[in-house]
Structures are given as C-alpha cells and as structure tokens.
Amino acid sequence: MGSLPGGVFVTGALLLLLHAGTVAAQEEARLSAGDSIRVDGVMVGTVLNISGPVMTVVTRSAPRCRAGEMHGDAPICDPAPLVRHTMNLEEVTIERRLPKSRLNLRTIAGGVIGGAAFAAAGHAFGPTIGFGRVQGCLVSDSNITCSTGEQRYEPDVLAARQKKSDQEKGMVFFGLIGGTATAILVRKLSVGWVRISPTIAVGGDEPWGLSFTLPASR
Hints:
With 218 residues, the protein is an alpha+beta fold. It is 36% helix and 27% strand. The longest helix is centred in the last third of the chain and has 35 residues, at 155-189. The radius of gyration is 29 Å and the shape is elongated.
C-alpha cells in the first residue's frame, strides 16, 4: 500500500470516527451550579443558580487597565470584574463541553487506524529514508572493509536484505508516531460544545431536567 491510499484511508476513517453518533438518541443530563456553559454560541460563563426556568450565569468582563505611572512601564490592570446575567432557559441556546459517546473506543480505533496508515507510508518510504546499514558484505569486498566473520552476499541479495530492513523499521517507526498522534487528535476533537435543550421542569428550586444531542460539527 502506498502513502497516498494510506493517507486517504486514515482521513476518511477519522471523519467517520468523529462524526459517528451525531444523530444519536437523546440521553439524560443535568445542568447545575458550577457548570461551564456557552449561551447563544457567544457568551461563555459559569452557572450560578437555576430556579425553575430562570438561570443566572456569571461571566468575566474585560479587565480595566490604565497606563503605567512612569514612561515605559507596563499597563496596570485591575482584576476582571464578574458580571451576572439572568436569562430564561426557554429563550436561549445552551451548550456544554462534553465528550462524544464511546470516547475510549474512538481513541483506540483512531490509534489503530492511524498506526496502520502511517505504517503503510513507512513501508513505502523506509528504503528512501534509510534506517541504518544491515550487517553483511559483498562477495567482491576486500577483507579490510569487512569485519572478521561477517557474512558475504551477492549484490542483489544484500540489496534485498537492506530494503526489507528499511521497510520493517520504517513501518515500526512511522506506525508508532502516526498511531500516537492520531489517537491524541481523535481524543481532542471528540470533546466539544454540545447543545443542551431543557425538557421537564422539576419544580420549586430543583434543577431542570435536561437532555442533549450531538449536533453536526461546526
């Protein structure tokens, strides 16, 4: 397998891994004080409290800065003030950072797929890069250039052994790097903002029952 088919394979497989489950059945989730959320796709803050359909979110505004006292001094900034926002859950779009389903399975599958694809590339490029000379001398080499007792080969046999060694080491080297990098990438991209929509108000001061779905990536 050449490097191009391997790259196309791993790209397509990763897209399937990352988008799998976007049309999954709804699951129960609970939004409570202390959760970090994003409101209307813009405002990121922390839930302070929820009372019925009314939610209070705390965000930090831009810090207030003033020029330094002496010429060349860095600006002096006060701590960013906290701002409270009160909103109706039924009138806003709420998102939380959540992992997609079967995150560990996605990570393992991504590592295996990435390792296989990059190993294929290593098999193809190994002889070009070179991973060290194999032991052996040509039958035509002098005793000075060969170590004592070193095996002698015909040119085509030694070239074949060298190519096989470079291919095998290239597969291992690129496979380990590619598998690790792909697994990290899949795990990182499998966690993102997930839209949450309220379903049933429990009543009184109890938190709302919530469900969430994984929308198409954006």
